[in-house]
Amino acid sequence: MQLRFLGSGGFVPTDRRETACALLRRDGEALLIDAGTGARRLIAEPSLLEGVERLHVVLTHFHLDHTIGLFYLPDLGPSVEVWGAGEALEATPMQELVRRLLGSPFAPRSFLGHFGGVRELGLEGAQIGSFRLQVRIQRRHANPTLALRFDDVLAWCTDTAYDPENAAFTRGVETLCHEAFHAADETDDPGHASAGEAARLAAAAEVERLVLIHVNPGLDDDRELLRFARPRFGATEVARDGAEL
């Protein structure tokens, strides 16, 4: 399984970082984690989806910095299938949430017909192509979000304040991608975590590697995040757009 960061920032895009989006590839299959402004890279770099017939998109939640890229995807060559937990997170079916986002007059009337399907993701997880996905609701954000786990390879926890219950959910994965919106050891932000808190969770979960994501657009130096994270968990790095794992 190969992971490429298309957007490692949160809230708004900057010259350094697009907003939340990452591409998983396994052989000829592809899965997009969130669809922030980083999804534009799939248009700018068609080789990223070379050989892919269907692109699966899994949404952690529905804030615009994670979903606006859905607007870009109908022009892709592969068929696009969107997965999300509309019912579990917002008591609203996925079909309705996608219609609100991409329906007329905010998009051409034909847009919704370009998607290969909109799927409801239950809390039991799903087998999406060859990707086995487990999910957990994170309730420490302005709206609830999903933590994602792909087998024992990758866990993805974004848009959440420090949530110690994620340690059990992510335990033993090779790579934990965890949000670090704040360059601090701790924060009282009720909706976002700090670098130190992400590192504390990685240590408790006994993961092999921590990658900090959903970086604050106002941060000028990634070393500020590492200054707080590495004393708690040495195998920490900061995600960069275009980097691969």
Structure, described:
- By secondary structure, the chain is an alpha/beta fold.
- It has a single domain, classed as Ribonuclease Z/Hydroxyacylglutathione hydrolase-like (Metallo-beta-lactamase, Chain A, 4-Layer Sandwich), CATH 3.60.15.10.
- Helix content is 19%, strand content 28%.
- It has seven helices and 13 strands.
- It has helices spanning 40-44, 64-67, 86-90, 94-102, 166-170, 195-205, 223-229; strands spanning 2-7, 21-26, 29-33, 54-58, 79-84, 115-120, 126-128, 131-138, 145-150, 154-157, 175-179, 209-213, 236-238.
- The strands form two sheets. A seven-stranded mixed beta sheet has the order 7-8-9-10-11-12-13. A six-stranded mixed beta sheet has the order 1-2-3-4-5-6.
- Strand 2 (21-26) and strand 3 form a beta hairpin.
- Helix 6 (195-205) crosses helix 7 (223-229).
- The longest helix has 11 residues, at 195-205.
- The N and C termini lie close together (9 Å).
- The relative contact order is 0.15.
